[in-house]
Specification:
The protein is an alpha/beta fold. Helices cover about 35% and strands about 15% of the residues.
């Protein structure tokens, strides 16, 4: 028997669906899905924030599948699909840590296409992708209908920055330490960028940008859920403590 379908973005920039979780991870996933289910029966918008390569995308797929199994229409999106097009990169700095944090993401597009339309009183006609990060194809016109009881699960770095923080019904921080983030990210991207370049990018661009975010916004001070994902097989719910 297969799981109920989840509405996925048309973007080519997405990791494969994760393998079925082992018993310890499955128990934690079930508790987080149960927590989401307690929020409301109407539309919900959930963000998975955290450092690069913390496991946000895989967790997003798992939570969406768990919600679909419980009968909630589940929709997946990534903030990586709401970046400014590379054709405009000459207009701003996007390569330094500071520039990546300030300029890489098109938050106005995310609000207009993804977050605004999925509000409880909105029409639910939503684009799950703006600009494909790999092909650079504009998919803003590709719309899907999110029903009144749908749940949107979005993963992405800087997910709780002030420009979009008020849109979320639940904020989940996927926690790993900085060195593990760099190591996982470099290992993941080495085949594409080369090992040395992948580590440089993750340390000098992505981690540098995330350090600015942590210092300026301090998302760990206000997110409702913190999940330690250092060990994929044995994640730990750190917050709420009652979990």
């Amino acid at each position: 028997m297969t799981d109920p379908p989840v509405e996925l973005s048309v973007s080519t920039w997405r990791q494969p669906l994760p393998p079925r979780a082992g018993p310890e991870r499955a128990e934690v996933l079930e508790r987080v899905v149960g927590l989401i289910e307690t929020l409301a029966k109407g539309r919900l918008r959930i963000v998975l924030d955290g450092l690069t390569a913390a496991g946000k995308t895989s967790l997003g797929h798992e939570l969406a599948a768990g919600l679909a199994t419980r009968g909630r229409p589940a929709f997946r999106a990534s903030m990586d699909d709401f970046k400014r097009p590379w054709r405009d990169a000459h207009l701003y700095d996007r390569k330094s840590g500071e520039g990546y944090y300030r300029n890489a993401f098109d938050l106005d597009a995310a609000k207009r296409l993804l977050l605004g339309p999925t509000a409880p009183g909105a029409d639910g006609v939503v684009a799950l992708c703006s600009i494909d990060p790999l092909t650079q194809i504009d998919h803003a016109a590709v719309k899907v209908q999110m029903p009144h009881d749908g749940v949107l699960v979005v993963d992405g770095v800087f997910g709780c920055r002030p420009e979009i923080n008020d849109f979320w019904d639940l904020r989940i921080w996927v926690d790993v330490d900085a060195e593990l983030s760099v190591r996982r990210g470099a290992d993941r991207d080495a085949a594409r960028d080369g090992a040395a370049e992948a580590e440089r990018l993750h340390r000098e661009r992505y981690l540098a940008a995330e350090t600015i975010y942590l210092q300026e916004v301090d998302p760990l001070s206000f997110v409702e859920v913190v999940l330690d994902n250092s060990d994929f097989a044995r994640p730990v719910i750190v917050r709420p403590a009652a979990a």
